[in-house]
Structure formats: structure tokens, C-alpha cells
Design goal:
368 residues; six-stranded antiparallel sheet
Amino acid sequence: MSLYDSEEVERVASSFKLDSKVVGIERFGSGHINDTFRLQMKDGGVSYLLQRINHHIFPDVEGLMHNIDLVTNHLKSVLQGKVEDVNRYTLTIIPTNEGAKYLKDVSGDYWRVFILLDGTKSYDIVETPKQAFSGGMAFGKFQKQLSSLDATKLVEILPNFHNVEFRLSNLRKAIADDKVGRLSQVEDILAYIFEREERMRRIIIMAKNGELPLRITHNDTKFNNVLLDQDDNVQCVIDLDTVMPGYIAYDFGDAIRTIINTAAEDEKDVNKVVLNIPLFQAYTEGYFSEAKDFLTEKEIESLWYGVLLLPYMQAVRFLTDYIDGDRYYKVHYMDHNLVRTNTQLKLVKELEAHEEELIDILHQSLVN
């Protein structure tokens, strides 16, 4: 719906329990998955976000909305009595006129409405240690607040999303098929990947041995999924579509992957891929300021494995797609996925080169 019919959107909006009449509709945000609209209301009071859910990415809409409803209601119960308005600190689902959590229209599209949290802001890129600290605090608090909710009550929306064994299995299948004859170009890269396979299975092994509790994880810990107030204080975590059962280290590792690399994800000159260690330290300190209250010793140990795993696993995914003929990720030139692969693997190499220093920062941040 790059060009949308405002009358159609207004008709959809009228199916939800809004406080007043819609008087204006505008595109909202920079998301690439769902279509999002801001609804301006007649009385100028509460504003709303209307979203068309991309059910091609998230086919289990019922499970997705079940997860969000369960998580947001739990967060509100935890916050009750601690803040003046719990609706300011997590998302609020507005039901349809029939009381459902979402609407399926006659064309088969799925829609939902949230209260818009006015007076907040977010950043796409972490630029300062203070911002990194806030990001770590936000996701640490989010996990801590949800640690008292049984993770098995949630649906696995994206099966095997962070399962490295599944990703490596897909890579081996792509190698066996070699659909477009690219295998001979990546033999050195494959050797590097498979040399590290056992170490990168560490989190899964710990989980299978019962060393890691199953938690509720966000699974998309980009900084722009944190809302801050006007003084840059943490207000809430948003974009809960990927919330599901998982292991703490995955969220921590993906957040580090997105803030510690000084280069773009598709930087051709891998020499530009260096670590921003002050941001790593700030994020870790912010994270432990909230999360150390509930983490187990084994979970703390697993965090470093997550830091190594997430760029490694992303490289495996890019390389699988490259060998398979660029069927999944959008590419802008022939070797785009190969460039992405090399960038992620250079990040892994940099992390390995600074491993002792970074683990020391992890330990120091925990006791501070």
C-alpha cells in the first residue's frame, strides 16, 4: 500500500473502539514491514497508530497478537503503582468494536491499533555512550520485567530464527545444490565458518544441558526500538512483533552487533570495520544496571557467546543467500550478499582479536 486510499483506511479505523472521530490520516515511521498510519482525532486528545500487519512475514497473526497482548498486559501489571500512567510505558492494544485484538478485512489484510505515545523520540543510530547506556538499560529492564512471565505461554512466531544449527543446515543445503555455480568463489570463507561451528553452537549446547532458562526475548534489539522521553530517559521498548521464547544472549548479541561496528553492514572496504569499544562498554553498563538482578551465572557467561554468534550467524545467512542465487535478501549489485558476508565476518574477527578486553569490560560492568 505505497499509495493508500484514505477512505479505505478510515473505514478500517472505524471498526476499532476509538475515543472520537478520525479527522486526519498520515503515514508514520520508517518501518519496512508493516504499513503504519497516524490517526488524528477530532478532540485532539489521544492519538492512535493503525497498522496493516504484513502477514507474509508474520503468517500467524493470531499468535503474534496473542504474544503482544500477553506481554503488554504483564508489563502493565509489573508497572502498576510504580508509575502514574502505565499506558505511557508500554504499548496498548485498542480492540475492535467486537472486542478482538485485530481485524481481518474483506481483502484478507490484517489490521491493529495501538495508542500512539506522543512526546517520545527514538534514534536510528547510536552515536554517544549515553545513548548506548540508555539502550542497554531499556532492553535490560524489558527482560527483567518479563522474567516473571512464563515464556512457554508465548508462541514461537519465527521458528528457528536464532537457531545456528538451522542456519548452518541451510548453508550446507545451498552448498550441495550450488544453484548458480558460486561455490568455488567462497571456499576460504566456508573454511573460516566451519572452523568456528562448534564454538558458535555454545548457547544451544548450554540450553540443551539445562544451563540456560528459557526467557521472553525481543529478537530485534535495534536502538530505534527504544522510545525515550524528551530528556533522553528510557520510556519503553516497542516493535513487539518478534517477541517470543528465546535465550537472553541472543538479544544482547544482536544489540552489540548493531552498535559496535563503525562501518555499514554492506561496507566493501572491510578495513573500515573496527570496534567502537566505548559504546560496547556503555551498553553493557546500562544493560547490567537492570538485568544483573535476575540473570543467572550461566546466562551472564552466555552473553559473550551471543556477541560472537550474532554477526557470525548473520554472515551465514548472507552467504547462504549468495550461494543460493540471492533469493531472500534484496541486492543492489551482483556480489552484494558476498560483501555483506565479508563485513560480518570481519566483525567476528575483530571481536575475537579483542576478546580478552571485551570480556573484562563485561565483568567490570557487572560489579559496578
